[in-house]
Write a structure and sequence with these properties.
Blueprint: H1 15-44, H2 51-58, H3 62-65, H4 72-95, H5 101-118, H6 120-128, H7 130-134, H8 140-158, H9 167-186, H10 193-213
């Protein structure tokens, strides 16, 4: 049972809307900090950027930043997590459409490269901060993607789609190589998604073919 404006019965008038407004404000503040940080890191790079640079672009009080993130690294990791999470969703969906070994490898790489090349925010952030991102490969979101790929590789082996192989090592190799190839691709104008996809696919399909003969 609720009282006026959706407040719980017996609660002071306006209690629930007030709580809703506070939560909305918190979400808006966090989003503003992330948006500002994304711009700052894309323009200045992680090393040159400072928390002060981020705060200046938010219009928020300086102390507000620290209500959400303890330092520059934390907000960078949050942004990296956003990019990785979206890439994971797209690549896994692509792999699950595959009906052949070639499609399994090609569709996953293509989805990953297309995402980075077509999303201006992800493009600028990753291109400017490749070295920092590379140094944060211990981030849980990165390894979650590698574990998902490993699971999909094992499932493909079980279904007879791929030859039996060391899925753990293959997943690590595909994630690492995919990232490095993406950085090279983003350095070109325009980014050559098809070329990066072909190279990565030929590389790993060739390895899988050799494993099947073994």
């Amino acid at each position: 049972m609720t009282g006026p404006a959706g407040a719980p019965a017996g609660a002071p008038p306006g209690a629930a809307p007030s709580l809703g407004r506070r939560e909305a404000t918190k979400q808006a503040n966090r989003a503003a900090i992330l948006a500002a940080a994304r711009e700052v890191f894309a323009e200045l790079g992680y090393g040159a950027a400072s928390v002060r640079d981020v705060i200046r672009r938010t219009g928020l009080a300086s102390g507000t930043f620290y209500n959400y993130f303890p330092d520059k690294e934390a907000v960078f990791r949050a942004l990296l997590d956003e990019v990785v999470r979206e890439a994971r969703v797209r690549t896994r969906a692509a792999r699950r459409r595959a009906a052949t070994p070639e499609a399994f490898v090609e569709l996953g790489f293509q989805a990953y490269f297309e995402y980075l090349a077509s999303d201006p925010v992800a493009f600028a952030f990753v291109r400017r901060n490749a070295g920092t991102a590379r140094g944060m490969f211990d981030d849980p979101s990165v390894w979650a993607g590698a574990r998902e790929l490993e699971d999909d590789l094992r499932a493909a082996v079980a279904e007879g789609l791929l030859p039996d192989h060391d899925a753990h090592s293959m997943a690590a190799a595909m994630v690492g190589a995919g990232f490095e190839l993406a950085i090279r691709m983003l350095d070109r104008e325009p980014p050559d998604v098809d070329g990066a996809t072909r190279f990565a696919s030929d590389l790993f399909l060739g390895g899988l073919e050799r494993l099947s003969r073994a």
